[in-house]
Amino acid sequence: MIMTRELQRATFNRSALVRVLSDTLPEVPGPKYDFGERLGQWLDFSDALTLFSVLNTEAGSGTSVPPAKSDLPAQLARIRRNLSESIHNDGVFSAGPARIPFPIPLPNATAESAAEFSPYHRYYLAHQRDMSAAITALRANARKALVGQSAAGKQLADLDAAFEKFLFTRERNLLSNIPIMLGKRFDQRYAEHRAALAGHTTDDPTTWTQPGSWLEAFCHDAQTALLAELELRLKPVAGLISALGSAAEHKEQKSQ
Questions:
Q1: How many domains are there within the chain?
Q2: Is residue 179 situated within a structural domain?
Q3: Distance from C-alpha of 127 to C-alpha of 233, rounded to nearest angstrom
Q4: Cβ neighbours of residue 111 closer than 8 Å, sequence gap 6 or more
Q5: Which residues, at least 6 apart from 242, have a Cβ–Cβ distance to it below 8 Å?
Q6: In a domain, 47, yes or no
Q7: Which of 60, 182, 184, 226 has the greatest number of beta carbons closer than 10 A?
Q8: pLDDT tens digit string along 1-51?
């Protein structure tokens, strides 16, 4: 089956997010484990039984419903574009208003209070909530389309739903570590900034929003991580939509 072959060829341990975090934080090692082995450690006995049931459901029988013209590829492109623009439009270092503004030091803030990472942690979490809400809804719509397309499509939709359920907590916990890791980068950027100041120079937080500042550099760090995370989060639904399109194209070729 086309969808199964695509899954087998996936390189789960080479995501752009891992590369970005490794470049940003050199102490973060690249994964040195086998994906299948690690996945087996994440699933318990009941999870394994559910997967066994899904994988052993006969996918070739049943009648398929001729699908209407799907706009799911357009929805995927729109969600990718909207979320990417929301990340790029920080409202500080880029022109135009921001839906989720990048935090800046409050007026009259001291350097010590302005260098608190909490606002930037909340900024990153807000983007994560945005991504999760939009992509989860699209993924559910893609599964519905697959269920209505064919028995094989239903099997893939059931498999995806099972994995989403099994791995939800694991994924949430792993992704919640990203802003914590970025906090180390924030501290590193600020320490380098402080070291570059002359001993008699007062550190004025109002200068941190100027072009070329350490805070602008950190804003770029956060945006790079967010964009890489966005692509990682989009992979499952992009795969479902691709499978949906491939199956529809194959069916159309057979009917000619």
A1: 1
A2: yes
A3: 12
A4: 203, 204, 205
A5: 6
A6: no
A7: 226
A8: 333 444 344 444 456 777 777 777 656 555 555 555 555 555 554 555 555
**Residue 189 included in any domain:** yes
Count Cβ atoms within 10 A of the Cβ of residue 97 and give its class: 0-12 exposed, 13-18 middle, 19 or more buried.
exposed
Q: Which of 20-29, 126-135, 161-170 has the highest mean pLDDT?
A: 126-135
Name 215's Cβ contacts closer than 8 Å, sequence gap at least 6.
104, 189, 208, 209
CA–CA separation, 50 vs 56, rounded Å?
A: 10
> DSSP of 75-93, one letter per residue?
HHHHHHHHHHHHHH--SSS
> Does residue 127 sit within a domain?
yes
Dihedrals φ, ψ of 56, to 5°? -105, 10
Could you tell me if 145 and 72 are in contact, meaning their C-beta atoms sit under 8 angstroms apart? yes
DSSP designation for 150: -
Residue numbers of the domain that contains 171: 119-197+208-245
